[in-house]
Automatic annotation (TrEMBL):
PROSITE patterns linked to this entry: NOL1_NOP2_SUN, SAM_MT_RSMB_NOP
UniProt keyword terms in alphabetical order: Methyltransferase, RNA-binding, S-adenosyl-L-methionine, Transferase
Domain SAM-dependent MTase RsmB/NOP-type per the UniProt entry, residue ranges: 158-423
SUPFAM superfamilies: NusB-like, S-adenosyl-L-methionine-dependent methyltransferases
Family label: Belongs to the class I-like SAM-binding methyltransferase superfamily. RsmB/NOP family.
Name used for this protein in its record: Transcription antitermination factor NusB
Protein's organism: Aeromicrobium halocynthiae
């Protein structure tokens, strides 16, 4: 590769588009494979994450300049060039010429002239100027969609979930587009927070927030005594662990444990209290990730079942976590491709699954025990809507509290958690 950074960025964009790849999994692997490190790795990371986050805005600019149908690979190259021209401090001539070289090598000679012409027009104006032109005549939320590079339905869902002002909504959309800092978790009994680099977290006593650097270089992370985990995710696990119980507190269950971050924190806390954690995950490859995260916690049982039909007896667990599969709209900072991959019609399938999992979790919780229902989504259909639907006709369940954390308020992913107690 004559320009490995931009070539890797382009290939990752193609995999995201073609193969539904995940940026946070594929990009580090490709950087390691091609031995790209330091500033080049940081630049590649910004190219990929920034391009995917802002692709809605860039597509609007590109489509203004071309009325023809654009081949998907060519569009990815145009998005990559537009990000350099409009959002990074890359000189126009370098952004255009280097992107054109990637097109020539990875796609072929035929679209070179077209890409060169479009990118020169893109770079002739600033991002603010483009947004002003694109937003003219649009209603406020369509304009927000273009400006913030969020689909209109996501903007509307966030507005509904916030139940606040336009300023709140704009602050959330802006926070979604800001690269998140790496947050570490010290697993209790295995690592102390002060042996991890970075400043203390704002909310979790086990969190440390790194200013920069590779978390893989931290000894405690390599050894499995600590992990990389957003502070909102830590708070979900702590919400379950900190709920007050009377009577038995010996059996804990994480019903949807993959990939294992919350389960590892729960397992460490359970070990300190002499409790046994069952960490369940339906998909085998994700269950293997759970096993890896639990390798230093011998009293954790990893199982592989559909959480709605696992072989557990009713009313046998003291604490149960349902970290339900969801749209992932709360983690758009970390998984930028999710905003383009999810559709409103996905909600019907997901909410059916979420209801089934919460109903099963309540069945497995003993009287007096607690269930925490959590999602990495603030969408009301996946949060308070599920809790209300499941508990509406039950007199044996009390909703004690709900939490909604936000990127623009708490500095976390937009995590939701509800504490339900069996009477």
């Amino acid at each position: 590769m004559s320009d490995p950074v931009r070539t890797i960025a382009f290939l990752v964009l193609r995999a995201v588009e073609q193969d539904d790849a995940y940026v946070n999994l594929l990009l580090p692997r490709m950087l390691a494979e091609h031995k790209v490190t330091g500033r080049d790795a940081a630049f590649a990371t910004e190219l990929v994450h920034g391009t995917v986050r802002q692709q809605g805005t860039y597509d609007a600019v590109i489509d203004t300049l071309s009325s023809r149908t654009i081949d998907p690979a060519v569009r990815d190259a145009l998005r990559l060039g537009a990000h350099q021209l409009l959002s990074l401090r890359v000189p126009n001539h370098a952004a255009v010429s280097e992107t054109v070289d990637v097109v020539r090598r990875e796609i072929g000679h035929k679209p070179v002239g077209f890409v060169n012409a479009i990118l020169r027009k893109v770079g002739a104006r600033s991002l603010d100027d483009w947004i002003e032109e694109l937003s003219a005549g649009l209603d406020p939320d369509d304009a927000r969609s273009v400006r913030s590079s969020h689909p209109r339905w996501v903007v509307e869902a966030f507005r509904d979930a916030l139940d606040g002002t336009d300023d709140d909504l704009d602050a959330l959309l802006e926070a979604d587009n800001a690269p998140p800092r790496v947050t570490l978790v010290a697993r209790p009994g295995l690592a102390a927070p002060d042996e991890l680099p970075g400043e203390p977290g704002r909310h979790s006593p086990f969190a440390r927030i790194m200013a920069d650097g590779d978390p893989g270089s931290v000894a405690a992370v390599r050894e499995g005594r600590a992990g990389v985990q957003d502070e909102g995710s830590q708070l979900v696990a702590l919400t379950l662990a900190d709920a007050v119980l009377t009577g038995s507190d010996a059996r804990w269950l994480d019903l949807c444990a993959g990939p294992g971050g919350k389960a590892a924190l729960l397992g460490a806390l359970a070990a300190q209290r002499g409790a046994h954690l069952v960490a369940n995950e339906l998909q085998h490859h994700r269950a293997e990730l759970v096993r890896s995260s639990m390798r230093l916690l011998p009293d954790v049982e990893v199982t592989e079942h559909d959480g709605r039909a696992g072989p557990w007896d009713a009313a046998t667990f003291d604490r149960v976590l349902v970290d339900a599969p969801c749209t992932g709209l709360g983690a758009l900072r970390r998984r930028p491709e999710a905003r383009w991959r999810r559709r409103p019609e996905d909600l019907a399938t997901l909410t059916d699954l979420q209801r089934g999992l919460l109903e099963r979790a309540l069945e497995l919780t003993r009287p007096g025990g607690v269930t925490v229902y959590a999602t990495c989504s603030p969408h009301r259909a996946e949060t308070t809507g599920i809790v209300a639907a499941v508990t509406a006709d039950r007199d044996d369940v009390t909703v004690e509290t709900t939490h909604q954390w936000w990127p623009h308020v708490h500095g976390t992913d937009a995590m939701f958690a509800a504490v339900l107690r069996r009477r």
